[in-house]
Amino acid sequence: MKIIIGLGNTGAQYKNSRHNIGFEVIDKISAIKGAKFIVNKKFEAEIAKINGFIFAKPLTLMNKSGQAVQEIKDYYKVSNSDIFVTSDDFNLEIGQVRFRRGGTSGGHKGLDSIIVHIGDDFYRFRIGIGKDEGMDETDYVLKKFSSGEKKLFDHIIDESADIMLKLITQDDFENKTININPPEAV
């Protein structure tokens, strides 16, 4: 059994923001797999199960995501090597994705929380959202996509979902960085 976690913030005010790209990728993968999310109050998460995969979106605040992840991990009795977390990363350029096991949070509060609760030896699938040097990091990650950015990020989300789906269905994982090219029309 593999647990795939998408990080994001709940609430309409966060929809289509950079910080919710983890939710959007997990939504896309679960739709491809034909899984439907239901709210599980015990886990404080939306959960979808299908064919040996559990998809989860913590309903806690981003910086408390580790609580939900630990509840899910303990209930299903899986090791960290079967946990895959997808999140935004402002340290990566837009369109760059990085897949690796272990390491630091890179300043991501959701990953910080997961590391505190279960340790750091789980897989991360980070999706580059870039950064605006003239803007506060918190304001930047919570900012909604402009219409032009939305088209680009929809493409990145689709490509990221395809890449992550291929990675999680393999038995032999290796760290990798992949650049997603923008669609022709952007």
TrEMBL record:
<feature type="binding site">
    <location>
        <position position="14"/>
    </location>
    <ligand>
        <name>tRNA</name>
    </ligand>
</feature>
<feature type="site" description="Stabilizes the basic form of H active site to accept a proton">
    <location>
        <position position="88"/>
    </location>
</feature>
<dbReference type="GO" id="GO:0000049">
    <property type="term" value="F:tRNA binding"/>
</dbReference>
<keyword id="KW-0694">RNA-binding</keyword>
<feature type="active site" description="Proton acceptor">
    <location>
        <position position="19"/>
    </location>
</feature>
<dbReference type="GO" id="GO:0006515">
    <property type="term" value="P:protein quality control for misfolded or incompletely synthesized proteins"/>
</dbReference>
<feature type="binding site">
    <location>
        <position position="63"/>
    </location>
    <ligand>
        <name>tRNA</name>
    </ligand>
</feature>
<dbReference type="GO" id="GO:0005737">
    <property type="term" value="C:cytoplasm"/>
</dbReference>
<keyword id="KW-0820">tRNA-binding</keyword>
<keyword id="KW-0378">Hydrolase</keyword>
<comment type="subunit">
    <text>Monomer.</text>
</comment>
<dbReference type="GO" id="GO:0004045">
    <property type="term" value="F:peptidyl-tRNA hydrolase activity"/>
</dbReference>
<feature type="site" description="Discriminates between blocked and unblocked aminoacyl-tRNA">
    <location>
        <position position="9"/>
    </location>
</feature>
<dbReference type="InterPro" id="IPR036416">
    <property type="entry name" value="Pept_tRNA_hydro_sf"/>
</dbReference>
<dbReference type="GO" id="GO:0072344">
    <property type="term" value="P:rescue of stalled ribosome"/>
</dbReference>
<protein>
    <recommendedName>
        <fullName>Peptidyl-tRNA hydrolase</fullName>
        <ecNumber>3.1.1.29</ecNumber>
    </recommendedName>
</protein>
<comment type="function">
    <text>Hydrolyzes ribosome-free peptidyl-tRNAs (with 1 or more amino acids incorporated), which drop off the ribosome during protein synthesis, or as a result of ribosome stalling.</text>
</comment>
<keyword id="KW-0963">Cytoplasm</keyword>
<comment type="function">
    <text>Catalyzes the release of premature peptidyl moieties from peptidyl-tRNA molecules trapped in stalled 50S ribosomal subunits, and thus maintains levels of free tRNAs and 50S ribosomes.</text>
</comment>
<dbReference type="Pfam" id="PF01195">
    <property type="entry name" value="Pept_tRNA_hydro"/>
</dbReference>
<comment type="similarity">
    <text>Belongs to the PTH family.</text>
</comment>
<dbReference type="InterPro" id="IPR001328">
    <property type="entry name" value="Pept_tRNA_hydro"/>
</dbReference>
